[in-house]
Amino acid sequence: MRNATEDNLTEAVLAKLNGAGDARFRQVMGSLIRHLHGFIRETELTEKEWLAGIQFLTAVGHKCDDKRQEFILLSDTLGVSMLVDAINHRKPRGATENTVLGPFYVSGAKDKPMWADIAEGAPGEPAYVWGRVLDVEGRPIEGAFIDVWQTDGEGFYDAQRPGDVQYARGRFTTGADGRYGFKTIKPVSYPVPTDGPVGKMLLRMGRHPYRPAHVHAIATAPGYERVATHLFVAGDEYLDSDAVFGVKHSLVVEFKDHAAGPTPDGKRSGEPFCSAEFDFRLVQA
Ligand code: BEZ
Ligand code: FE
Q1: Rounded to an integer, what distance in angstroms lies between the CA atom of residue 145 and that of residue 141?
Q2: Which residue's CA lies nearest to atom 8 of ligand 1?
Q3: Are 112 and 171 within 8 A, CB to CB?
Q4: Best mutation site among 67, 99, 239, 244 for ligand 1, i.e. most ligand atoms within 8 A of its Cβ?
Q5: What is the tens place of the pLDDT at every residue in 32-80?
Q6: Cβ of 76 less than 6 Å from ligand 1
Q7: How much distance in Å is there from the Cα of 182 to the middle of ligand 2?
């Protein structure tokens, strides 16, 4: 085309999609072009701002490697990950809600028996987490898997520590009563990585980078939909301002404080500990 103007350019670019065979690709690209052009028109973007945007996205790309995904962090902090999650995991009432997976999930965590200590010496306050895996009618599911991972009591995942350490992870299988349980440490709130362009963006937006304390969990069972979720610690100061918008009221769990004495695994603790009970409710596939 010749003589592109403010008025005809969007339609001209959209027309270039006519040769794309895949209908869904045409739909997604068409919408992206329309919204991108709409954004530029609405803001009357200056050339300097356009270049700053290009430089920002370039810096986001440069920060990525096989351990760090700055684009996902950008998506998380702009609420895009949770919006995609919400659209793709609409659940019936009573089902455990989904939330962001986060970058610290490692598949193939070790299988551990009921009440195993997943902390494996990591620093923090002892905690017991237990409950059941149920269907939405409240019937226990036998042979369900619960994959859990979390920070230590200093707010670090094992992957953020030097060396090849592994802690605060494990996979559990429910018995006929649908029960699971493990010993761990109480998670604490922690900042998402701020040493890259997304950290600078948060600062410029006047936002803090913290996530409220949580235990990550993926619950699955044959014949049921997988749920990737968190157990958030009730009372955490960041529950209403999670940097990645992941908190759902139904996922906030009381971590009750106990003096030294009998523990939920039937043993005794010589030091104070806390305990949290949470039932997962899975939807049939
Ligand atoms: C996490 O909970 O592990 C997490 C989620 C999103 C961004 C960074 C960390
Ligand atoms: Fe996390």
Answers
A1: 10
A2: 192
A3: yes
A4: 244
A5: 999 999 999 999 999 999 999 999 999 999 999 988 899 999 999 999 9
A6: yes
A7: 18
